[in-house]
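Figure-free illustration: sequence to structure, shown twice.
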Amino acid sequence: MEILMPIWEFFQNNILTKPQFFIGFIVFAGYALLRKPIYECLAGFIKAVVGYMILNVASGGLVGNFRPVLAGLKDRFDLSAAVIDPYFGQTAAQMSVENIGRSFSMMMMVLLIAFTMNILLVLFRRYTKIRTLFITGHIMVQQSSTALWLVLFCFPDLQDPGVVLMLGVLLGTYWAVASNLTVEPVAKLTEGGGFATGHQQMFAIYFTSKIAKKIGNPKKSLENLKLPGFLSIFNENVVATGILMFIFFGCIITILGPDLMHQIDKGFKDTQNFGFYILEKSLNFAVYLTILQLGVRMFVSELTNSFQGISDKILPGSVPAVDCAATYGFGHPNAVTFGFLFGAFGQFLAILGLVVFHSPILVISGFVPLFFDNATLAVFANRLGGIRAAAIIPFCCGILQVLGGGFAAYYFTTGNFGGWHGNIDWDTVWPVIGLIMQNFQYVGVAFVVIALLAIPQIIYQRHKDTYFLIAEDYDQYKEVLAKKQGVPVDQVVVD
């Protein structure tokens, strides 16, 4: 173990928690297993790393662009509350762990056991029915932090080795099962893109894929929306995003006022006009979205092409589970903005409700859940249920994020340190897991793990003939559907 720990520390600090290199080395290994020349392996590595770094720049820009607005709302209205955001949540979880005198460093071993658990579940996929390997490193760290506090909250007397083993099995099972739920929705959205989603809203994606078609009509989607006259400019993603965000940011920043924004945002120079400042902040949103889509195209292309080598030689039939932003390039460009706006409406309405009904804890929106959860769900909802579903589902998600996040921050006490994880799965699924663990102790943990492992078994029983095929060979999957529907392959309906 003493020999392995330094190796694991190096891997964790330099590769696992740096998803650009993690994915880059996976691409390199995949091409090597496909017996590609070394220069092609190196080229794939570079393109994958650069593509993911571009995505990181865009994601960071989106968060940084919105953060002064959140800070302004907090200062302007004298709000002191829990921020529902994975970065705030990670800090709050760490402070909670250290506040009770426990070491946060055990999270490193949790990551090792959880990742190993995911690999084992894929290796034995014949029995487990798991098809996905969760490889989004920074998300793994964020989730491990919050989950570590939940286990310590529910089992305060459990010694460190027991905490590490229990949480490693629980979290690894969650990563495997939850990402596995996204295989079908992502494959149908991307026409066999060769990847799944490994992020913070995996259960939500699955439920969206099931209810979107019942809420709306896919024929009345953003793709089919014909806007009359001057409104046709909204068909352009950059234009639509710029105008909508100018209205959204303009209203909020105008309420905050130029004096407060000068104090909060160092990028707002004294010589700059307030109106042009708002315009710049709004158009930056469109800039970062465009950059994000460029990065997604680069790394997803390399990853899906190369992962075939890993799937064939090491983890047969598996697909990588990656950042939710990888799906944005396969939906209507305006769906991302659409989901963000309606998710924001839902969150603001729920926050107003907390104020009106004198909630014991107040919630402040965090940009990561506000944008990435709701944008992702809107992409899937628009494809399956059109505009109506793309509006209703993110709106409801926004409400659940605030109410579920507020409850979790209050009940599990991380609100005392200013935050909660905030993403939709961690506002719904994980608070329930926490309650089960607290009330039923070890029996509850066993129940949760067994219940999670039962999910892929149930789905497999319903679609035995296509369950593995949709991940392994999408074209053959469509041929099977065509035979069932009695139509040519080019007329098959995939919903």
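We now fold a second protein in the same way, so the two outputs can be compared directly.
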Amino acid sequence: MRYYFLAGLAIPVYILLFPVYRLDITFGLFGTYFALILPYIAVSIPFNILLLTGFLRDFPEEIEQAAVMDGVGLWRMAWKVVFPLMRPVVATLAVLNVIYVWNEFPFAVTLINDPTLTTVSLGVSQFQGVYSVDYGAMMASATLVLLPQFVIYAAFQKQVIAGMTAGAVR
């Protein structure tokens, strides 16, 4: 099963752009936010699964065994024991996925045709016309696009570093 997720990572995302475009037209999703949400989810699943399973593979069994000995049920062990220890990995995934979706341009420019549904990355590109470019407005908007990313990373910096080094040799 792991090899299927690795294969999902091996396929470049933008090769899927035309098939996703055709599927969106077939299912009547073209030009909606839902046309973007589904590919974003599908593209992020392989990386998310591999990072989570890599972390859980090294999860100490002793903690789970101690919880079972204390009489904790499966759901309570998942939410009260395992999930709090997974906080660094979940924070890492959240930050990486938010930054990916925030910066993603090719899917948005292809699948959104309504100016009222413009994403942030599409908004920055609208300062470039056919014959002119408003460089000042483009740089200002690019700065405004970067600021939330810096804030999100700064807020979760400790968890991201802990999550990225979770599987490292100790």
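Summary for the second example: The longest helix spans residues 34-57.
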